[in-house]
């Protein structure tokens, strides 16, 4: 969240996604669908090992990724809230684990 180069890329993509279909697709993949796919695979493996309860891995991945994406966007727009967003991400992940642990 604090890497200036990554922040510039996210800001650029946020602006250009409405003008360029290719950038829109890449932005969606980078900010949501790519992360959702990665987390779904990880969560499926965790379910196989009974580390978390069995649910739809894609839905659980969305439950993790979407709020974190929003919090990162807030930190990009309001850099003075970055520490707050890191805290919120930690709270969000702790809550997720508490709800779904096996």
Key traits:
single chain; 102 residues; flat
How would you describe the overall organization of this protein?
With 102 residues, the protein is mainly alpha-helical. 79% of the residues lie in helices and 0% in strands. It is built from four helices and no strands. The chain has helices spanning 4-16, 21-48, 57-77, 82-100. The chain is flat, with a radius of gyration of 15 Å. The mean pLDDT is 91.
Write the layout of secondary structure elements.
Elements: H1 4-16, H2 21-48, H3 57-77, H4 82-100
DSSP strand tally: 0
List the helices and strands in order.
HHHH
% residues in beta strands = under 5%
Helix vs. strand class = mainly alpha
- Distance between the terminal alpha carbons, to the nearest Å? 30 Å
Largest sheet: none
Shape by Cα distribution: flat
Low-pLDDT ranges: none
Rg from alpha-carbon coordinates:
15 Å
Query: How much is the average pLDDT?
Result: 91
Instruction: State the share of residues found in helices, binned by percent.
Output: over 70%
The tally of helices reads: 4
């Amino acid at each position: 969240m604090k890497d200036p180069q990554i922040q510039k890329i996210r800001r650029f993509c946020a602006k250009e996604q409405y003008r360029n279909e290719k950038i829109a697709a890449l932005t969606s993949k980078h900010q949501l669908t790519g992360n959702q796919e990665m987390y779904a695979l990880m969560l499926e493996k965790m379910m196989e090992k009974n580390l978390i309860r069995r649910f739809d891995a894609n839905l659980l991945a969305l439950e993790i990724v979407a709020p974190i994406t929003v919090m990162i966007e807030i930190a990009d727009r309001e850099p003075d809230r970055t520490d707050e967003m890191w805290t919120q991400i930690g709270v969000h992940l702790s809550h997720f684990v508490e709800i779904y642990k096996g």
